[in-house]
Amino acid sequence: MNRRVSLKEGLKYQGGGPMLSWLLHRISGLAILLFVGLHVISSFFMQQTGSDLATNLNIIYESWIFQILVTFIVIFHALNGLRIAILDIWPRFLVYQREALWLQWFIFIPIYGLTIFILIQRNLSGG
Amino acid sequence: MQVTLKIFRFNPETDKKPSYKTYQVEAQPTDRVLDLLEYIKSTIDGTLSFRRSCAHGICGSDAMRINGRNRLACKALVKDLGNRITVEPLLGMRVLKDMIVDMEPFFENYRQVMPYFINDEPPPARERLQSIEERERFDDTTKCILCAACTTSCPSFWANEKYVGPAAIVNAHRFIFDSRDRAGKERLDILNGQFGVYRCHTIFNCTDACPREIQVTKAIGEVKAAIATGKLD
Ligand code: FES
Questions:
Q1: Distance B92 CA to ligand 1 centre (A)
Q2: Is the separation of the CB atoms in B73 and B33 below 8 Å?
Q3: Is residue B211 within 6 Å of ligand 1 at its C-beta?
Q4: What architecture (CATH level 2) is domain A16-124?
Q5: CA B64 – CA B71 distance, rounded (Å)
Q6: For chain B, which domains are there?
Q7: Residue A126 has what pLDDT?
Q8: ipTM score here?
């Protein structure tokens, strides 16, 4: 038998929270690349052709549902990156990796909650 | 209690593909998975193959995936696992038969970090003295039993078996931070290479998998910091 580990088999490994946050960090990183890409493409078409494509992209981009998703991904990626950087600089704190993850969500929830609150409020008031 | 074991089976002489077989056994909550495997091998199916030697968590031969996570079969108790237990070989290594995997790539990586004491200075009249603090510095990483549970839990190793892996870094750490050793710099150079420490993305599976409770990710972090700063402290 060869040694290849399939994606399915890898994902089934019971790594728990730390492994999931690593996965989410990769996925959110790629997603951010996609958002920025969309933004660049829509600005480009807007300026060059003023076509419907650009307007449609912007409608998706600016819809509040999309914004809720984008802010989740960006805030998670930023906080998780911060945690990784801090633990890289002071490896002795790696013993508290699990606690660090809890702390990270503890910081994430109020920031994200406030963001959603503002988004919905602005949307309801038609702002 | 009745326990249902779902066991990964692969015989290279007859099977093209691996399969799973289920066995019902009577067990005590304090039984270990190794006891159940021994029972199946001696009374139900003699062809079941797995490695074991000490049966006391110190030789490191029976690391395997139990309920989706790497553990030693001789340290995994039935009462912690429930009455449905899945047993599979370690991931990322070639399966030779059932739970037996080809450990050679693992030991190849291990040998790369020169896991032995190096000091060419003439020995003093008596022993090379070391303070309690100096000994304490690398105490955690002396506990490794080379079972490969950490290395085969690491997604970076799954992706590329040339990555030296957590176990090799732990064993390098054991000598890099030993005040009597003189080859720390060479080991750091090796670990600074393409397949060295920077393939570690602090995923933490290794620390969770270690049956000796070594702080593996911390040891890797300390080696990374030593490479980055050039300081051993
Ligand atoms: S049999 Fe020796 S470690 Fe389990």
A1: 20
A2: yes
A3: no
A4: Up-down Bundle (1.20)
A5: 6
A6: 2-101 (3.10.20.30), 104-229 (1.10.1060.10)
A7: 64
A8: 0.87
